UniProtKB/TrEMBL annotation:
Residues 251-423 form the Fungal lipase-type domain. One of its GO terms (molecular function) is triacylglycerol lipase activity. CDD domains: Lipase_3. It comes from Linum tenue. GO terms for biological process: lipid metabolic process. InterPro entries: AB_hydrolase_fold, Fungal_lipase-type, OBL-like. It holds the Pfam family Lipase_3. Keywords: Hydrolase. This is Fungal lipase-type domain-containing protein. It comes from the Eukaryota.
Length: 529
């Protein structure tokens, strides 16, 4: 009885301490639903403040001094009047408004593309229709390919100068890590970019490609819970190089789906949550990882301030948190590493999936999962948005850049997504890590920050659109100049046409990243051509 009483007392004390901590936390939430069209017009035309769309600690508990000094308060007020807030709010309002039409368009396009491919193209479809043998696509089957998969139909790993995929010893040696100079492992980078693209497919397609084409071991595919969106909106799969005595474990997060309004709203969301000693972290990505809900800030405190421990009876009884991407992947990873003593793991993703790929080891470090982090081989991201501020970058650099680089961030040319959220005096979102930037000629450069870091610049507008025209012309000839595997189909060319008007969107296509990894030449080599 005494022990039970002490335990209860400790639980109450822990909860009280956590509550006090939570009141001292800093966060900023951009809420488009808190204002209407007149508020937007007032801010845009007459310079009115955008405070109506913002929520901070200051609004939740006026008795707690959340902002440390006048400079911090000025920062919030400066944020409130920033046009960047208006861009975020307008973009998210538009996306939310067309969310359902986007979803229906995606379903229709997926069905049509699979109907064509399963029946041998338009002529085959017409013939099968006349013969009464039309093959109807079945969503979720091993033959139902996503729109991303139709944009770029390549599924095999690049093996030029490499061993066959079923030659495990040589393959694992190639995938074994970075060289002593800290340069990225090119075979591993190709596996990662293909796995990032494959993550857009359903579980059966992923299993088929991993097992039959890559000759590797498919471990699992997870549909994970996002408590803010109240749906299973985060997907991730895991593979090993072989079923037993594996040397490599790969975790790949799905990125922004083309017709998923929630994904695009997350990309344009500038809300952040500050973790002491770590820095400010993008709130939408935290929620996608399943580590909280902005509508109940205490959930963020529980998952990010308590070391990953469930601190209340409410948390222990809420099974939804156990379905989150972070906890599901961490549990599976621990089991795989325990079963394969010599294995190391790599994390990858494209777009939103890239943000989750770097956020996963970030939270592992926060939760002091030191044994897991000792076995991290690398993080490879493609088209990754910014996930936090400079303080977060310094924290991660101390763990991922010494004694050699473990984090490689790949950016293609004028891709819009790596330029989001904005890096300016208001938000201070910053990239970090080893950036491999590829221009539209696939020339690789190592740099700290990609050019035109905030994209929306009148100074670069003409050059960006002219480059999109060049990319469209390149798509017509690349199959002849670089081989048939680089030939772009009609769907990709249509996206290139759209890109002439919206160049940042077309540049985000995974086809650009696969081409960059496979065709890329360094600046030293480029002068030879």
């Amino acid at each position: 009885m005494i022990m039970a009483g002490n335990s209860s007392s400790m639980s109450v004390e822990d909860d009280d301490a956590l509550l006090l901590q939570s009141r001292r936390r800093r966060y900023l939430i951009v809420r488009p639903e808190k204002g209407g069209i007149w508020d937007l017009l007032g801010s845009a035309l007459w310079g009115g403040e955008a405070c109506k769309f913002l929520e901070t600690n200051d609004h939740i508990d006026h008795q707690v001094e959340v902002l440390d000094d006048a400079a911090d308060r000025d920062e919030v007020y400066r944020t409130a009047s920033s046009w960047v807030i208006l861009v975020s709010v307008i973009a998210r309002k538009i996306i939310s408004t067309v969310g359902k039409p986007m979803e229906y368009t995606g379903y229709a396009l997926d069905f049509f593309l699979n109907l064509l491919s399963l029946n041998g193209g338009l002529s085959g479809l017409l013939l099968n229709f006349l013969l009464g043998k039309v093959v109807i696509p079945e969503r979720g089957s091993a033959t139902f390919i996503s729109t991303i998969g139709h944009l770029d139909g390549r599924i095999d790993l690049y093996n030029k100068g490499s061993p066959a995929p079923d030659d495990h010893d040589q393959l694992v040696q190639l995938l074994g890590g970075q060289d002593s100079s800290g340069e990225p492992n090119r075979a591993l980078m190709d596996l990662c970019v293909m796995a990032s693209k494959l993550a857009y497919e359903n579980a059966k397609v992923v299993q088929t490609v991993v097992s039959r084409h890559w000759k590797m071991h498919f471990v699992d595919f997870f549909n994970c819970w996002n408590d803010f969106q109240k749906q299973m909106s985060t997907q991730v799969f895991i593979l090993c190089d072989k079923p037993r005595d594996a040397k490599l474990i790969l975790i790949s997060f799905r990125g922004t789906e083309p017709f998923d309004a929630d994904d695009w709203c997350t990309d344009f969301d500038y809300s952040w949550y500050e973790i002491p000693k770590l820095g400010k972290v993008h709130m939408g990505f935290i929620e996608a990882m399943g580590l909280g809900n902005r509508n109940d800030i205490s959930t963020l405190d529980h998952h990010l301030q308590s070391g990953g421990r469930f601190t209340t009876n409410r948390d222990q009884g809420n099974g939804d948190w156990q379905k989150s991407a972070y906890y599901l992947v961490k549990k599976k990873l621990k089991r795989l590493l325990a079963e394969n003593k010599d294995a190391k793991f790599v994390v990858t993703g494209h777009s939103l999936g890239a943000a989750l790929a770097i956020l996963f080891p970030t939270v592992l470090l926060l939760h002091q999962e030191d044994e897991l982090m000792k076995r991290l081989l690398g993080v490879y991201t493609f088209g990754q948005p910014r996930i936090g501020n400079a303080q977060l970058g310094k924290f991660m650099a101390a763990h991922l850049e010494h004694p050699s680089h473990k984090y490689f961030r790949v950016v293609y040319c004028n891709d819009l997504v790596p330029r989001l959220p904005y890096d300016d005096k208001t938000f201070l979102y910053k990239h970090f890590g080893y950036c491999l930037y590829y221009d539209s000629f696939y020339i690789e450069q190592e740099m700290q920050e990609e050019p035109n870091k905030n994209f929306f610049s009148l100074r670069n507008a003409v050059a960006v659109h002219l480059n999109a025209v060049w990319e469209l012309l390149r798509s017509l000839t690349i199959g002849y100049t670089n081989g048939p595997e680089y030939r772009e189909g009609w769907l990709s060319m249509c996206l290139r046409v759209v890109g002439v008007a919206l160049p940042g969107i077309s540049a985000h296509s995974p086809i650009n990243y696969v081409n960059s990894v496979r065709l890329g030449t360094t600046t030293q080599h480029a002068c030879l051509y």
